[in-house]
Structures are given as C-alpha cells and as structure tokens.
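Appendix B: complex inputs.
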Amino acid sequence: MNRFSVFFITIFLVFQPYLQAYSTNPKEFIAELVGEAITTLSDKSLSVEEKSKFIEKIALENVDINALGLYTLGELRKTSDKNDVSRYQEAFEKYFLKSLTSRLTDYSSSKFEVINSDQKSANYTIINSKVLPEDGNPEIKIDWRIYTKNPDKPLIRDLIVEGLSLARTQKEEFSSILSSNNNDINVLISKLEEFISE
Amino acid sequence: MISKKIAPILFCLVIAYISLDKAKASEECFENVSRSIFKFNMVFDNIILEPIAKGYNKLPNPIKIGTSNFTSNIATLLSIPNALLQGNFSQLGHTTGSVIVNSTVGILGLFNPAEKMGLKPHKEDVGQTLGTYGMGPGCYYVLPILGPTTARDTIGMIADTFVDPFAHITIREKELMGVSGNDLDYFSVKGTTAVDFRADNITTFQSLEKNSIDLYSSFKSIYLQNRENKINNSLGDQDDWGSLDN
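Resulting structure:
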C-alpha cells in the first residue's frame, strides 16, 4: 500500500463519523440524526468546544437555516432591499447557531423515540417524537417539520415542543422588534449582531 | 360603595369593552404598561419565585411528585364544570373519574393511580370554554404577578372563581360535601402550583432568558400558542410557511 493510500484511509477513519449521511426517509432521518446527537452530547470525554462544533456542523447540514431566516423575517422579506436581506441572513445564521449551541451543550441524558410520521404534502412531513428525560421529569413531545421538496436531502424547518413552535416564537419575537422600530430591518440586524458579539 | 359582588362584573365589562376594540390577541391593549409590568414580574421572579423553585427542586423526588399530584388533582376540579359547559362528555368522564380515584385511592391526590387506569383529564378553565364558544382572545396584556393574559382569559379567570368547586369551598367559604376551607387554603394551593410549575421549567426559563433578544415577545408568543392549543385540545401544527419553497 502506498503512502497516499495510508493517508486517505487515515483521513477517512478520523472523519468517518462526520461523513456519515442520514437516511432520506424523514422518519429514519430524524431517528438517526437525534440518535447520533444524543450519543455525542452525552459523551463526557468531549469538551464543550467539541460539542459546540458538532452541533454547528449537524445544524448547518440538516437544518434549513436559510428558509428559517426568511420565515422569521415575515412579510418584510418581500419588500426589503436584497442586500439588507442578505446581511440579515448572514446575521441570522450566526445568531441561530450561537443560540442552538448554548441550548444543547448542557444537554442531559434522555431517551428519544420517534412515534409517527405524517406526510402533509409533497414538501412537508411532520415527524412526531418524544423525549424521556432520565432524571424522572415528564416526557416531552416534539414534532419536527421536515422539508422534503428535495427527497434526497430532507431538511428540518421547525421544532414544535409540546405544541409550541420554535420558528413561530422566533418570528413573533422579531416581528415585535420590527414593529416597534418602523419595520427597519437594520435595527433587527443590529440586535442580532449585538447578541452574537456578547 | 361598590359591593364585592358587583365589582368583578364591572371589571369583566371593562375588559370586554377593551377586547371589543382590539380583536386580535397579537394586538396589545397597552404595550408600554405591559412591558413595565413584565419587568416588575421578572424582578419578582428573580428575587422570590425562582429561588423558592430552586429550593423546591432540591426536595426528594417523592415529595415533589406528591406535591405536584396534589395541586394537579385540585386544579382538575375546575375542569369538571368546564367539560360540562363545553359539552365534552368524554372529558367530563375522564376529569370526574380522575378526581374521584386520586382523591380516594390516591390518598387526597398525593398519588396518581388514575393515570395508570388510563384516565387522561385535560386542564380546562372558563377562558378555554369561552374560546370553544367562539369568543376571540381580545387584546393581550400582562398582569402583575399573574403574568400574561388576554381580555377573554381575564374574564375567564374571574369566572373560574365562581365555577371552581375548590374556590367555592375556600374563598367563597361555602361547604361542599362536608368540606370547607378559607382564603389561606386557596392561595396556598395556588402559590404551590406556581412554584411547582416554575420548578419544572427552570432550564426552559433560563434558556429563554439567555437566548431571547426580546424576552417580552417570546413570552407573549408562547402564552398565545399555548392557549390556542389548549382551546383546540391539540398540540398545534400551524402551517403558515406559505410559499417559502425556495
């Protein structure tokens, strides 16, 4: 075996967990994705930084952050200047990743179970699941809105925790900021940047 | 002087008047005042409720579970008249059965054998009942200590004290099946319910506080979504993604 082969095999083995592709079936996609996330986040040998990197990576690959950003901007996405929307998208992605990593790095061990799958249309499937915390707290129902327009690459667009949509909550939070600032997208971008730099 | 009986009715009429003018829940009655009250509530939470909830969380699990079951069983009493008012006879069976089983076999509600028997009572109040009758939420505002509400839910909250059997025997000082109590019993149970709820949601509150850029709006959105779901007796799945098919 030549040196190059050894090098590539080593690279593959080191990065193998990160090269793993999830199933294209929405139900299996969620089961595999969350299963891997639970294993990684409950691994006590990993540092907070390593866990943060892992969360960022799976979020960038499996969450439709671009669409989520546009959704949370509301109707303003149609009337705002394209450059402003693009700046907003950039700030939103950083905001989303920072907020997500802050929520998940303190993760405590839980059991996860996919219960059902409900195809709403060609573009959307809702996956019903439940989380059973191991500390004895009551189970939590989580529904996942999966965007399936590209059947080869399902993407998560929303999480509905006990009936509360995280995307809708975010949208209404942004809407409030915008409406008290004359719908000025720049104010929202500044608030997001402020959060990112904190 | 306005009598004690007329005061709540007058208050309801004022609230109804406010809600007629502002029909959508997303609209605010007096946002600046609500934001100030929200800030006050957050200070109250930081100084009083959160520390008590943290202390409560340190109690042994059986005590916490027992307390939670006890307050939940008392809260289910309010669901009985509301299930009846909603004409939901299946829920009426579940709530009545749950209260009877838990109050007897479950030793005054400290245990929850009803759940093991498959009884699943929903928490129903007059605000939800009015919602099922088609009454809109009216405008949104925040009350001191009690927190987020809408015009409809405020009317409901006052009406609750008239239909709730527990309120009947405590704050109304009436006797029901040989049982009676006083104001202190009522407010002790309500206070314990609030502490139990706050203790269950310590991490959720911390996460919200840490990650919201407008905490007031996050709470508003969560409150309104939760009430919508409770009225519809479902875990909402609102599809308002529209044409976002990029």
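The first helix of chain A runs from residue 3 to 19.
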